[in-house]
Amino acid sequence: MSTPPDVLPHMDAVQAALEAIGLTVYLGGAPTDAGWVPPDKFAVLYPDAGMAVRSSLADDRTGLDSTMQVTCVGSDVVRALWVADRVRRALAAPLEVEGRICWPAEDLGGPPVQRDDDVTPPVFYVPVQYRICSTPA
User: What is the model's pTM?
Assistant: First the structure.
């Protein structure tokens, strides 16, 4: 019997790739602590649990297929799009996950930039989804 893949090392690899290019990255949402002041640009990573996919007719579910949303946030439209550009560049190369061969992330796009008036000061954001796939090395 084969071991199904773990999504957490892939999530860590995405976060590391984004931080390696100098982005501030939050996982699952921006902080809500009283007194927290958002930086003028940052990214928020929202991973899903992924799916263990068949690698052969023997039903070895050792492949991973996951979608990770990166919400690109800025104090204005230009900064939000700047973050989206940097994220796209960071995820253009295959991720480094121990014991796995990762495909380059597939950019699935997202909606247009939106303004969030529920925070003070307001910010602009654009969520972009990426498909992350890997197989055993």
Answer: 0.92
